[in-house]
Amino acid sequence: MNAPQYDAIVIGSGAGGAATAYRLVQGGLKVILLEKGDHLPVDGSTLDIQRVVHEGKFLSREIWKDGRGRSVCPEEHFNVGGKTKWYGAALLRFGAHEFQADSVHQCTSWPVSLADMEPYYQEAERLLGVRLFDTEPNLADILCRLKGKWDVEPIPLSLAPCITADRVEATHFDGFASVAGLKGEADGSILSLLRGHPGFTLSVNAEVFSLLGHAASPATIVGVELTDGRRILAPRVFLAAGALHSPRILGRYLEFAGLGKLLPIGAHIGRNVKLHLLTALIALSGRSMTDLLRKTVVITHEQFGHSSVQPLGFDSELIATLVPKAVPEYLRRQVGRRSYGFFLQTEDGSDPRNRVIGAINGADHPVLDYDEDRTPSAAREHKAFTRAFQWALAKAGFLTFTRRIGLNGTAHACGSLVCGEHASSSVVDRHGQVHGMAGLYVVDGSVLPRSSRVNPSLTIYAWGLRVADRVAKQFAGGFRHA
Ligand SMILES: Cc1cc2nc3c(=O)[nH]c(=O)nc-3n(C[C@H](O)[C@H](O)[C@H](O)COP(=O)(O)OP(=O)(O)OC[C@H]3O[C@@H](n4cnc5c(N)ncnc54)[C@H](O)[C@@H]3O)c2cc1C
Hints:
By secondary structure, this protein is α/β, with parallel strands linked by helices. It has 11 helices and 18 strands. It has helices at about 15-25, 50-55, 115-130, 135-145, 165-170, 185-190, 245-255, 315-320, 330-335, 375-395, 455-475, and strands spanning about 10, 30-35, 65, 70, 150-155, 200-205, 210-215, 220-225, 230-235, 235-240, 275-285, 295-300, 305-310, 340-345, 355, 365-370, 400-405, 440.
Protein backbone atom coordinates (compact mmCIF):
# COMPACT_ATOMS: atom_id res chain seq x y z
CA MET A 1 0.00 0.00 0.00
CA ASN A 2 1.26 3.51 -0.86
CA ALA A 3 1.95 6.13 1.82
CA PRO A 4 -1.09 8.09 3.06
CA GLN A 5 -1.74 11.25 1.06
CA TYR A 6 -3.64 13.00 3.86
CA ASP A 7 -3.85 12.93 7.65
CA ALA A 8 -7.61 12.60 7.48
CA ILE A 9 -10.44 11.97 5.04
CA VAL A 10 -13.89 13.39 5.79
CA ILE A 11 -16.79 11.88 3.84
CA GLY A 12 -19.62 14.38 3.37
CA SER A 13 -19.76 18.17 3.79
CA GLY A 14 -22.97 18.65 5.83
CA ALA A 15 -23.24 19.70 9.47
CA GLY A 16 -21.01 16.97 10.91
CA GLY A 17 -18.49 16.81 8.07
CA ALA A 18 -17.89 20.57 7.85
CA ALA A 19 -17.49 20.98 11.64
CA THR A 20 -15.08 18.05 11.77
CA ALA A 21 -12.97 19.23 8.83
CA TYR A 22 -12.78 22.71 10.34
CA ARG A 23 -11.43 21.55 13.70
CA LEU A 24 -9.00 19.05 12.14
CA VAL A 25 -7.50 21.65 9.78
CA GLN A 26 -7.29 24.12 12.65
CA GLY A 27 -5.41 21.41 14.57
CA GLY A 28 -2.79 21.13 11.81
CA LEU A 29 -4.03 17.99 10.01
CA LYS A 30 -3.94 17.77 6.23
CA VAL A 31 -7.55 17.01 5.35
CA ILE A 32 -9.46 16.07 2.22
CA LEU A 33 -13.23 16.42 2.31
CA LEU A 34 -15.00 14.22 -0.23
CA GLU A 35 -18.47 15.40 -1.22
CA LYS A 36 -20.80 13.40 -3.45
CA GLY A 37 -22.58 16.52 -4.75
CA ASP A 38 -21.46 19.80 -6.25
CA HIS A 39 -21.69 23.46 -5.23
CA LEU A 40 -25.22 24.83 -5.51
CA PRO A 41 -25.85 27.46 -8.16
CA VAL A 42 -26.03 31.10 -7.01
CA ASP A 43 -28.27 32.21 -9.87
CA GLY A 44 -31.37 32.52 -7.69
CA SER A 45 -32.82 29.12 -8.66
CA THR A 46 -32.41 27.82 -5.09
CA LEU A 47 -34.96 30.43 -3.97
CA ASP A 48 -37.42 29.70 -6.76
CA ILE A 49 -40.61 27.98 -5.52
CA GLN A 50 -41.30 26.39 -8.88
CA ARG A 51 -37.89 24.75 -9.12
CA VAL A 52 -37.36 23.96 -5.45
CA VAL A 53 -40.84 22.90 -4.34
CA HIS A 54 -42.81 21.92 -7.43
CA GLU A 55 -40.03 20.40 -9.55
CA GLY A 56 -37.88 19.16 -6.63
CA LYS A 57 -34.89 20.08 -8.78
CA PHE A 58 -32.38 19.96 -5.92
CA LEU A 59 -33.59 16.76 -4.29
CA SER A 60 -32.06 13.32 -4.57
CA ARG A 61 -33.70 11.04 -7.13
CA GLU A 62 -32.47 7.89 -5.43
CA ILE A 63 -35.27 5.32 -5.16
CA TRP A 64 -35.45 3.28 -1.98
CA LYS A 65 -37.91 0.64 -0.78
CA ASP A 66 -39.86 0.81 2.44
CA GLY A 67 -40.26 -2.16 4.79
CA ARG A 68 -43.06 -3.55 2.62
CA GLY A 69 -41.20 -3.25 -0.66
CA ARG A 70 -42.95 -0.08 -1.86
CA SER A 71 -40.87 2.58 -3.63
CA VAL A 72 -40.00 5.72 -1.72
CA CYS A 73 -37.72 8.63 -2.60
CA PRO A 74 -36.26 10.15 0.59
CA GLU A 75 -35.93 13.94 0.45
CA GLU A 76 -32.16 14.00 0.65
CA HIS A 77 -29.83 16.64 -0.72
CA PHE A 78 -26.46 15.88 -2.27
CA ASN A 79 -24.56 19.16 -2.50
CA VAL A 80 -21.75 21.00 -0.75
CA GLY A 81 -23.12 21.85 2.72
CA GLY A 82 -25.51 18.88 2.63
CA LYS A 83 -28.98 19.41 4.06
CA THR A 84 -27.83 22.47 6.02
CA LYS A 85 -28.03 24.49 2.80
CA TRP A 86 -31.77 23.85 2.89
CA TYR A 87 -32.50 23.73 6.56
CA GLY A 88 -34.65 26.13 8.55
CA ALA A 89 -31.69 27.40 10.62
CA ALA A 90 -33.35 26.67 13.99
CA LEU A 91 -30.28 25.74 16.02
CA LEU A 92 -31.37 24.52 19.44
CA ARG A 93 -29.42 22.67 22.11
CA PHE A 94 -30.77 19.40 23.48
CA GLY A 95 -31.89 19.54 27.13
CA ALA A 96 -29.74 17.85 29.84
CA HIS A 97 -32.37 15.12 30.27
CA GLU A 98 -32.25 14.38 26.54
CA PHE A 99 -28.78 12.92 27.01
CA GLN A 100 -30.24 10.39 29.43
CA ALA A 101 -32.35 7.28 28.90
CA ASP A 102 -36.15 7.34 28.99
CA SER A 103 -37.24 3.73 28.87
CA VAL A 104 -40.99 4.44 28.67
CA HIS A 105 -40.42 6.36 25.43
CA GLN A 106 -37.80 3.82 24.16
CA CYS A 107 -35.01 6.41 24.36
CA THR A 108 -31.46 5.24 24.99
CA SER A 109 -28.86 7.35 26.75
CA TRP A 110 -25.88 9.14 25.27
CA PRO A 111 -22.39 8.15 26.47
CA VAL A 112 -21.80 11.90 27.05
CA SER A 113 -23.68 14.59 28.99
CA LEU A 114 -24.83 18.10 28.18
CA ALA A 115 -21.84 19.37 30.19
CA ASP A 116 -19.47 17.40 27.90
CA MET A 117 -21.11 18.98 24.85
CA GLU A 118 -21.39 22.51 26.28
CA PRO A 119 -18.09 23.99 24.94
CA TYR A 120 -18.79 22.54 21.49
CA TYR A 121 -22.36 23.85 21.45
CA GLN A 122 -20.89 27.27 22.22
CA GLU A 123 -18.31 26.98 19.46
CA ALA A 124 -20.95 25.84 16.95
CA GLU A 125 -23.23 28.75 17.90
CA ARG A 126 -20.33 31.15 17.40
CA LEU A 127 -19.39 29.72 14.02
CA LEU A 128 -22.99 29.72 12.81
CA GLY A 129 -23.84 33.18 14.13
CA VAL A 130 -26.85 32.06 16.16
CA ARG A 131 -29.14 34.83 17.48
CA LEU A 132 -32.70 35.57 18.55
CA PHE A 133 -35.23 37.61 16.57
CA ASP A 134 -38.29 39.57 17.68
CA THR A 135 -41.70 37.98 17.29
CA GLU A 136 -43.73 39.78 14.63
CA PRO A 137 -47.32 41.03 15.19
CA ASN A 138 -49.42 38.19 13.70
CA LEU A 139 -47.52 35.53 15.60
CA ALA A 140 -47.53 37.60 18.80
CA ASP A 141 -51.32 37.82 18.49
CA ILE A 142 -51.71 34.05 17.97
CA LEU A 143 -49.48 33.29 20.96
CA CYS A 144 -51.37 35.71 23.11
CA ARG A 145 -54.63 33.94 22.31
CA LEU A 146 -53.34 30.41 22.93
CA LYS A 147 -55.10 29.09 26.02
CA GLY A 148 -53.54 26.39 28.20
CA LYS A 149 -50.08 25.64 29.49
CA TRP A 150 -48.18 26.40 26.34
CA ASP A 151 -44.64 27.54 26.94
CA VAL A 152 -43.11 29.89 24.36
CA GLU A 153 -39.38 30.52 23.94
CA PRO A 154 -37.49 32.41 21.24
CA ILE A 155 -35.73 30.09 18.76
CA PRO A 156 -31.98 30.54 18.31
CA LEU A 157 -31.72 31.11 14.56
CA SER A 158 -28.66 31.03 12.39
CA LEU A 159 -29.72 33.98 10.24
CA ALA A 160 -28.03 37.33 9.55
CA PRO A 161 -29.78 40.22 11.36
CA CYS A 162 -30.17 42.05 8.02
CA ILE A 163 -32.26 39.21 6.54
CA THR A 164 -35.43 41.10 7.47
CA ALA A 165 -34.43 43.76 4.94
CA ASP A 166 -34.57 41.18 2.14
CA ARG A 167 -38.17 40.03 1.65
CA VAL A 168 -37.34 37.08 -0.60
CA GLU A 169 -34.62 35.67 1.64
CA ALA A 170 -36.61 36.29 4.85
CA THR A 171 -39.56 34.30 3.51
CA HIS A 172 -37.45 31.62 1.80
CA PHE A 173 -34.88 30.31 4.22
CA ASP A 174 -36.75 27.23 5.50
CA GLY A 175 -36.48 24.66 2.71
CA PHE A 176 -34.50 26.96 0.38
CA ALA A 177 -30.80 27.79 -0.01
CA SER A 178 -29.73 31.38 0.56
CA VAL A 179 -28.09 33.12 -2.38
CA ALA A 180 -26.99 36.22 -0.47
CA GLY A 181 -25.36 34.14 2.30
CA LEU A 182 -27.86 35.31 4.95
CA LYS A 183 -28.27 31.86 6.53
CA GLY A 184 -25.54 30.27 8.64
CA GLU A 185 -24.84 26.77 7.31
CA ALA A 186 -22.04 24.25 6.90
CA ASP A 187 -20.67 25.61 3.63
CA GLY A 188 -21.03 29.39 3.99
CA SER A 189 -20.19 29.61 7.70
CA ILE A 190 -17.63 26.85 8.20
CA LEU A 191 -16.08 25.50 5.00
CA SER A 192 -15.65 29.04 3.68
CA LEU A 193 -13.19 29.60 6.56
CA LEU A 194 -11.00 26.83 5.16
CA ARG A 195 -10.99 27.93 1.54
CA GLY A 196 -7.44 28.54 0.33
CA HIS A 197 -5.96 26.89 3.43
CA PRO A 198 -2.97 24.71 2.38
CA GLY A 199 -4.13 21.94 4.74
CA PHE A 200 -7.58 21.64 3.21
CA THR A 201 -8.85 20.12 -0.03
CA LEU A 202 -12.52 19.98 -0.96
CA SER A 203 -13.25 17.46 -3.68
CA VAL A 204 -16.77 17.72 -5.17
CA ASN A 205 -18.61 15.11 -7.24
CA ALA A 206 -16.57 12.60 -5.24
CA GLU A 207 -18.87 9.82 -4.05
CA VAL A 208 -17.33 7.38 -1.64
CA PHE A 209 -18.27 3.79 -2.41
CA SER A 210 -16.51 1.96 0.40
CA LEU A 211 -13.72 2.01 2.92
CA LEU A 212 -10.27 0.52 2.48
CA GLY A 213 -8.85 -1.68 5.21
CA HIS A 214 -5.32 -2.68 6.09
CA ALA A 215 -4.46 -5.88 4.18
CA ALA A 216 -3.31 -7.75 7.29
CA SER A 217 -5.80 -6.18 9.68
CA PRO A 218 -9.12 -5.31 7.97
CA ALA A 219 -10.55 -3.70 11.11
CA THR A 220 -7.99 -0.92 10.62
CA ILE A 221 -9.22 1.60 8.07
CA VAL A 222 -6.58 3.18 5.87
CA GLY A 223 -8.57 5.03 3.22
CA VAL A 224 -11.58 5.07 0.92
CA GLU A 225 -12.59 3.95 -2.55
CA LEU A 226 -14.71 6.26 -4.70
CA THR A 227 -17.39 5.17 -7.16
CA ASP A 228 -15.11 6.35 -10.00
CA GLY A 229 -12.48 3.86 -8.83
CA ARG A 230 -10.09 6.36 -7.22
CA ARG A 231 -8.47 5.34 -3.95
CA ILE A 232 -7.45 7.89 -1.35
CA LEU A 233 -5.38 6.99 1.68
CA ALA A 234 -5.26 8.45 5.18
CA PRO A 235 -4.85 6.96 8.67
CA ARG A 236 -8.14 8.52 9.84
CA VAL A 237 -11.49 8.40 8.06
CA PHE A 238 -14.53 10.34 9.31
CA LEU A 239 -17.94 9.18 8.10
CA ALA A 240 -20.27 12.16 7.67
CA ALA A 241 -22.42 11.17 4.70
CA GLY A 242 -25.65 11.53 6.69
CA ALA A 243 -27.77 9.04 8.62
CA LEU A 244 -29.17 7.31 5.54
CA HIS A 245 -25.81 6.97 3.80
CA SER A 246 -23.02 6.47 6.36
CA PRO A 247 -24.43 3.08 7.51
CA ARG A 248 -24.50 1.89 3.91
CA ILE A 249 -20.83 2.78 3.41
CA LEU A 250 -19.79 1.08 6.64
CA GLY A 251 -22.10 -1.92 6.10
CA ARG A 252 -20.71 -2.46 2.59
CA TYR A 253 -17.16 -2.49 3.91
CA LEU A 254 -17.91 -4.88 6.78
CA GLU A 255 -19.60 -7.27 4.38
CA PHE A 256 -16.75 -7.09 1.89
CA ALA A 257 -14.09 -7.56 4.57
CA GLY A 258 -15.99 -10.40 6.22
CA LEU A 259 -16.25 -8.44 9.47
CA GLY A 260 -20.05 -8.15 9.64
CA LYS A 261 -20.45 -11.28 11.75
CA LEU A 262 -17.10 -11.06 13.53
CA LEU A 263 -17.52 -7.63 15.10
CA PRO A 264 -20.38 -7.04 17.58
CA ILE A 265 -21.17 -3.73 15.84
CA GLY A 266 -22.22 -5.73 12.75
CA ALA A 267 -25.57 -6.39 14.46
CA HIS A 268 -26.36 -2.68 14.89
CA ILE A 269 -25.35 -1.07 11.59
CA GLY A 270 -28.29 0.91 10.21
CA ARG A 271 -30.62 0.05 13.11
CA ASN A 272 -32.49 2.38 15.48
CA VAL A 273 -33.13 4.98 12.77
CA LYS A 274 -35.15 7.94 13.99
CA LEU A 275 -36.96 10.47 11.80
CA HIS A 276 -39.08 12.46 14.29
CA LEU A 277 -42.84 12.19 13.95
CA LEU A 278 -43.70 15.27 11.95
CA THR A 279 -46.89 17.13 11.07
CA ALA A 280 -47.35 20.35 9.11
CA LEU A 281 -50.32 22.38 10.30
CA ILE A 282 -52.07 25.33 8.69
CA ALA A 283 -53.95 27.72 10.99
CA LEU A 284 -56.49 29.71 8.98
CA SER A 285 -58.11 32.91 10.23
CA GLY A 286 -60.28 35.65 8.71
CA ARG A 287 -57.38 38.12 8.62
CA SER A 288 -54.42 38.53 6.30
CA MET A 289 -51.08 37.45 7.76
CA THR A 290 -48.26 39.81 6.92
CA ASP A 291 -45.41 38.67 9.18
CA LEU A 292 -42.11 38.41 7.36
CA LEU A 293 -39.80 36.36 9.57
CA ARG A 294 -42.10 33.77 11.11
CA LYS A 295 -40.00 30.99 12.61
CA THR A 296 -39.03 32.95 15.72
CA VAL A 297 -40.39 30.83 18.59
CA VAL A 298 -40.56 27.26 19.80
CA ILE A 299 -43.71 26.20 21.63
CA THR A 300 -43.90 23.33 24.12
CA HIS A 301 -46.40 22.00 26.63
CA GLU A 302 -45.57 20.42 29.98
CA GLN A 303 -47.88 17.48 29.30
CA PHE A 304 -46.00 16.52 26.11
CA GLY A 305 -42.35 16.28 27.10
CA HIS A 306 -41.11 14.87 23.79
CA SER A 307 -42.83 17.33 21.46
CA SER A 308 -42.47 20.89 20.22
CA VAL A 309 -44.00 23.21 17.61
CA GLN A 310 -42.30 25.84 15.48
CA PRO A 311 -43.90 28.16 12.99
CA LEU A 312 -42.93 27.28 9.44
CA GLY A 313 -40.62 29.92 7.97
CA PHE A 314 -43.02 30.16 5.01
CA ASP A 315 -44.96 33.06 3.59
CA SER A 316 -48.47 32.82 2.08
CA GLU A 317 -47.35 31.54 -1.32
CA LEU A 318 -45.62 28.57 0.24
CA ILE A 319 -48.35 27.84 2.72
CA ALA A 320 -50.74 27.63 -0.23
CA THR A 321 -48.66 24.68 -1.48
CA LEU A 322 -49.65 22.72 1.66
CA VAL A 323 -53.38 23.07 0.94
CA PRO A 324 -54.76 19.91 -0.72
CA LYS A 325 -54.46 20.04 -4.51
CA ALA A 326 -58.21 19.29 -4.82
CA VAL A 327 -58.85 22.87 -3.65
CA PRO A 328 -58.91 25.30 -6.62
CA GLU A 329 -55.73 27.36 -7.10
CA TYR A 330 -57.48 30.69 -6.39
CA LEU A 331 -58.84 29.41 -3.08
CA ARG A 332 -55.49 27.95 -2.11
CA ARG A 333 -53.92 31.38 -2.52
CA GLN A 334 -56.63 32.97 -0.37
CA VAL A 335 -56.05 30.37 2.33
CA GLY A 336 -52.29 30.98 2.10
CA ARG A 337 -52.76 34.72 2.68
CA ARG A 338 -54.84 34.21 5.81
CA SER A 339 -52.81 31.40 7.34
CA TYR A 340 -49.87 30.73 9.58
CA GLY A 341 -47.97 27.48 9.12
CA PHE A 342 -46.66 25.36 11.99
CA PHE A 343 -44.43 22.33 12.18
CA LEU A 344 -45.04 19.83 14.99
CA GLN A 345 -42.37 17.34 15.93
CA THR A 346 -42.28 14.50 18.42
CA GLU A 347 -39.20 12.57 19.46
CA ASP A 348 -39.39 8.99 18.22
CA GLY A 349 -37.73 6.35 20.37
CA SER A 350 -35.31 3.68 19.17
CA ASP A 351 -36.40 0.33 17.80
CA PRO A 352 -33.82 -1.92 16.11
CA ARG A 353 -36.39 -2.91 13.48
CA ASN A 354 -36.45 0.69 12.24
CA ARG A 355 -33.45 0.49 10.00
CA VAL A 356 -31.51 1.41 6.90
CA ILE A 357 -30.40 -1.57 4.82
CA GLY A 358 -27.88 -1.06 2.03
CA ALA A 359 -28.56 -2.55 -1.39
CA ILE A 360 -27.56 -6.21 -1.17
CA ASN A 361 -26.16 -6.11 -4.67
CA GLY A 362 -25.91 -3.44 -7.36
CA ALA A 363 -29.33 -4.26 -8.79
CA ASP A 364 -31.27 -3.80 -5.55
CA HIS A 365 -32.52 -0.64 -3.87
CA PRO A 366 -31.56 0.43 -0.38
CA VAL A 367 -34.33 -0.06 2.17
CA LEU A 368 -35.71 2.35 4.77
CA ASP A 369 -37.75 0.06 6.98
CA TYR A 370 -39.42 2.42 9.45
CA ASP A 371 -42.78 2.06 11.15
CA GLU A 372 -43.90 4.47 13.86
CA ASP A 373 -46.06 1.71 15.39
CA ARG A 374 -42.79 0.27 16.69
CA THR A 375 -42.47 3.32 18.96
CA PRO A 376 -46.05 3.42 20.30
CA SER A 377 -45.39 5.94 23.06
CA ALA A 378 -44.15 8.46 20.47
CA ALA A 379 -47.04 7.73 18.11
CA ARG A 380 -49.56 8.27 20.93
CA GLU A 381 -47.89 11.48 22.09
CA HIS A 382 -47.71 12.91 18.58
CA LYS A 383 -51.42 12.33 17.99
CA ALA A 384 -52.39 13.80 21.37
CA PHE A 385 -49.99 16.74 20.99
CA THR A 386 -51.35 17.56 17.52
CA ARG A 387 -54.94 17.39 18.80
CA ALA A 388 -54.09 19.60 21.79
CA PHE A 389 -52.44 22.23 19.59
CA GLN A 390 -55.33 22.14 17.12
CA TRP A 391 -57.78 22.51 19.99
CA ALA A 392 -55.86 25.49 21.42
CA LEU A 393 -55.86 27.13 17.98
CA ALA A 394 -59.56 26.40 17.52
CA LYS A 395 -60.29 28.15 20.81
CA ALA A 396 -58.18 31.07 19.57
CA GLY A 397 -60.45 31.32 16.51
CA PHE A 398 -58.47 29.37 13.90
CA LEU A 399 -59.56 26.64 11.55
CA THR A 400 -56.76 24.09 11.24
CA PHE A 401 -55.63 21.54 8.66
CA THR A 402 -52.87 19.05 9.21
CA ARG A 403 -50.67 16.97 6.96
CA ARG A 404 -48.50 14.16 8.33
CA ILE A 405 -45.03 14.03 6.82
CA GLY A 406 -44.44 10.60 5.30
CA LEU A 407 -41.44 8.33 5.03
CA ASN A 408 -39.87 10.51 2.33
CA GLY A 409 -39.55 13.30 4.94
CA THR A 410 -36.03 12.38 6.06
CA ALA A 411 -34.93 15.93 6.97
CA HIS A 412 -34.21 14.94 10.58
CA ALA A 413 -33.04 11.35 9.98
CA CYS A 414 -30.59 10.24 12.65
CA GLY A 415 -29.39 7.43 14.89
CA SER A 416 -28.42 4.73 12.38
CA LEU A 417 -24.87 4.25 13.76
CA VAL A 418 -25.71 5.01 17.31
CA CYS A 419 -23.11 6.00 19.91
CA GLY A 420 -22.96 4.27 23.27
CA GLU A 421 -20.66 2.82 25.90
CA HIS A 422 -20.66 -0.78 24.66
CA ALA A 423 -20.05 -2.55 21.36
CA SER A 424 -22.78 -4.99 22.36
CA SER A 425 -25.43 -2.29 21.98
CA SER A 426 -23.96 0.52 19.86
CA VAL A 427 -21.65 1.23 16.91
CA VAL A 428 -19.61 4.24 18.01
CA ASP A 429 -17.97 5.07 21.34
CA ARG A 430 -18.06 8.33 23.29
CA HIS A 431 -15.19 9.67 21.15
CA GLY A 432 -16.94 8.96 17.85
CA GLN A 433 -14.64 6.03 17.15
CA VAL A 434 -16.23 2.86 15.77
CA HIS A 435 -16.10 0.09 18.40
CA GLY A 436 -13.63 -2.65 17.51
CA MET A 437 -12.09 -0.78 14.56
CA ALA A 438 -9.13 1.58 14.21
CA GLY A 439 -8.92 4.79 12.19
CA LEU A 440 -12.69 5.13 11.70
CA TYR A 441 -14.97 7.77 13.25
CA VAL A 442 -18.62 8.75 12.72
CA VAL A 443 -19.41 12.46 12.94
CA ASP A 444 -22.87 12.97 11.42
CA GLY A 445 -26.45 12.57 12.61
CA SER A 446 -26.04 8.79 12.47
CA VAL A 447 -24.61 8.78 16.00
CA LEU A 448 -27.60 10.33 17.80
CA PRO A 449 -29.02 7.91 20.42
CA ARG A 450 -31.96 10.30 20.91
CA SER A 451 -33.62 12.60 18.42
CA SER A 452 -34.90 14.92 21.22
CA ARG A 453 -37.92 17.19 21.02
CA VAL A 454 -36.07 19.75 18.89
CA ASN A 455 -34.13 19.91 15.60
CA PRO A 456 -30.81 18.05 15.43
CA SER A 457 -28.24 20.17 13.54
CA LEU A 458 -26.62 22.12 16.35
CA THR A 459 -25.96 18.86 18.18
CA ILE A 460 -24.46 17.33 15.02
CA TYR A 461 -22.15 20.33 14.49
CA ALA A 462 -21.15 20.15 18.18
CA TRP A 463 -20.49 16.39 17.99
CA GLY A 464 -18.25 16.88 14.93
CA LEU A 465 -16.28 19.62 16.71
CA ARG A 466 -15.93 17.48 19.83
CA VAL A 467 -14.71 14.34 18.05
CA ALA A 468 -12.28 16.33 15.89
CA ASP A 469 -11.02 18.31 18.88
CA ARG A 470 -9.78 15.16 20.59
CA VAL A 471 -8.17 13.84 17.42
CA ALA A 472 -6.51 17.22 16.75
CA LYS A 473 -5.13 17.28 20.30
CA GLN A 474 -3.76 13.75 19.91
CA PHE A 475 -2.21 14.79 16.60
CA ALA A 476 -0.58 17.81 18.20
CA GLY A 477 0.68 15.54 20.97
CA GLY A 478 2.52 13.43 18.44
CA PHE A 479 0.08 10.56 17.83
CA ARG A 480 0.34 10.81 14.07
CA HIS A 481 -1.42 7.50 13.54
CA ALA A 482 -5.01 6.88 14.53
C1 LIG B 1 -35.92 21.38 4.58
C2 LIG B 1 -35.10 21.08 5.81
C3 LIG B 1 -35.26 21.86 6.95
C4 LIG B 1 -34.50 21.57 8.09
N1 LIG B 1 -34.57 22.43 9.15
C5 LIG B 1 -33.75 22.26 10.21
C6 LIG B 1 -33.69 23.22 11.24
O1 LIG B 1 -34.36 24.25 11.20
N2 LIG B 1 -32.85 22.98 12.27
C7 LIG B 1 -32.06 21.86 12.34
O2 LIG B 1 -31.34 21.69 13.32
N3 LIG B 1 -32.09 20.94 11.36
C8 LIG B 1 -32.90 21.12 10.29
N4 LIG B 1 -32.88 20.21 9.26
C9 LIG B 1 -32.07 18.98 9.41
C10 LIG B 1 -30.58 19.20 9.15
O3 LIG B 1 -30.37 19.81 7.90
C11 LIG B 1 -29.87 17.85 9.23
O4 LIG B 1 -30.15 17.27 10.50
C12 LIG B 1 -28.34 17.99 9.11
O5 LIG B 1 -27.98 18.65 7.94
C13 LIG B 1 -27.72 16.60 9.12
O6 LIG B 1 -26.32 16.74 9.11
P1 LIG B 1 -25.39 15.52 8.65
O7 LIG B 1 -24.00 15.99 8.73
O8 LIG B 1 -25.81 14.32 9.42
O9 LIG B 1 -25.85 15.21 7.13
P2 LIG B 1 -26.03 16.13 5.86
O10 LIG B 1 -26.14 17.56 6.22
O11 LIG B 1 -27.14 15.53 5.07
O12 LIG B 1 -24.66 15.95 5.07
C14 LIG B 1 -24.30 14.73 4.47
C15 LIG B 1 -23.40 15.04 3.28
O13 LIG B 1 -22.81 13.83 2.83
C16 LIG B 1 -22.84 13.80 1.39
N5 LIG B 1 -22.78 12.39 0.98
C17 LIG B 1 -23.76 11.46 1.04
N6 LIG B 1 -23.31 10.28 0.59
C18 LIG B 1 -22.01 10.46 0.25
C19 LIG B 1 -20.99 9.62 -0.28
N7 LIG B 1 -21.22 8.32 -0.53
N8 LIG B 1 -19.76 10.16 -0.53
C20 LIG B 1 -19.50 11.47 -0.28
N9 LIG B 1 -20.44 12.32 0.22
C21 LIG B 1 -21.67 11.81 0.49
C22 LIG B 1 -24.15 14.49 1.06
O14 LIG B 1 -24.16 14.96 -0.27
C23 LIG B 1 -24.17 15.62 2.08
O15 LIG B 1 -23.51 16.76 1.62
C24 LIG B 1 -33.62 20.46 8.10
C25 LIG B 1 -33.46 19.68 6.95
C26 LIG B 1 -34.18 19.99 5.81
C27 LIG B 1 -33.98 19.15 4.57
